[in-house]
Amino acid sequence: MRKNNNFPFLILLLVVAMVLPFSAAAAGVATIDLSMAVSLHPRMSLFDFDRMGFFRVEPGLSREAFEEAVARLKNSTVAATALEELQQLQQQLTELDRRKSVQVALFGSTIPAEREAAQKELEIIATEEDRLRGLIADSEHAVACPDLTDPATTRRYLAEIEAEILAAVRKAAAESSFNVVLNTTVPVPYGYPVRYHAGEMFGQGIPGINFSLFYAFLAKEHLAHPSDSAPPSRELINWLELARFPDAINLLPIRPYPLVLSGGECILARVMKIVYENHKVDPEVFKVVESVIHKIDEMDRPEKKQSEQ
User: Is 126's pLDDT higher than 60?
Assistant: First the structure.
């Protein structure tokens, strides 16, 4: 008789299947709104959302001291220097345009060697043009916003903030033995109107979507089908594919938030405590932040507040 070598493996699978649910239940699931976490980061207190940059001043200044520091930056030689650099770059771009016109004319030559040389020169000019336009954009930003960080520095600061928040999330999850952390930030705009309105102003509809697909399926009109026609499941799949289109979702009477409908433990306060301690923020300040976080969590998940009462 042939021996079954798979038996020990099947036993192992059974044990793992029995243990995993219990371990997952013991660990629990954590939730955090990363957009709120980033917004509450101390360095974001210097971020100008209108002009997309960080104020180049020290954090924690009084309103008067802050306004004075910003005024000094605006009146400093930095803006004048940036303006001179911008004018020089624009002159270089004008000269480059002149060179480009000459090479375009040569590109129409009947001599193959001249056309080849012109094409290579045009490629070099295009590369230089892209470089200059990038420098001009940075200089224009420096002229318009001498009190803010340049775009490259702004991107670096934002990346550092993101990295610090994620590191704090991992630390908080490890300290509380959470194996799973869900991000509850809504990734799409919330466009569902308060009331439906008829007419073109409400929308043109979703191309291809027709209520009859689903209506007929529920009415069981097409459950019996000839062998040469598509099964009813195909119509249901078509309906779901169309109804899950982003434009269609915005017309449904649902909110795309919260991501977690029930359960999960919010660790936003724990994460921000780690971050605020890293930045040596006054504990009294964090107490207010913590209370606001808990209040917003109660507003977002009223069932949690009811269960605690």
Answer: yes
Contact by Cβ (8 Å): 100, 125: yes
**DSSP code string of 40-92:** TSGGGGGEETTTTEEBSS-TT--HHHHHHHHHHHHTSHHHHHHHHHHHHHHHH
Q: What is the pLDDT of residue 107?
A: 78
**In the structure encoding, which two tokens stand for residue 38, read together?**
């980033």
pLDDT at position 57 over 70: yes
Please report the DSSP string for 125-174 in residue order: HHHHHHHHHHHHHHHHHHHH-TTB--HHHHHHHHHHHHHHHHHHHHHHHH
The whole-number pLDDT of residue 188 equals: 56
Q: Please name the amino acid found at residue 275.
A: V
- In degrees and rounded to multiples of 5, residue 31 shows phi and psi of -130, 150
Alpha-carbon radius of gyration of the chain: 30
Cα–Cα distance, 202 to 197 (Å, whole number): 6
Q: CA–CA distance from 26 to each of 18, 20, 23 (Å)?
A: 13, 10, 5
What confidence category does residue 86 fall into, taking pLDDT thresholds of 50, 70 and 90? confident
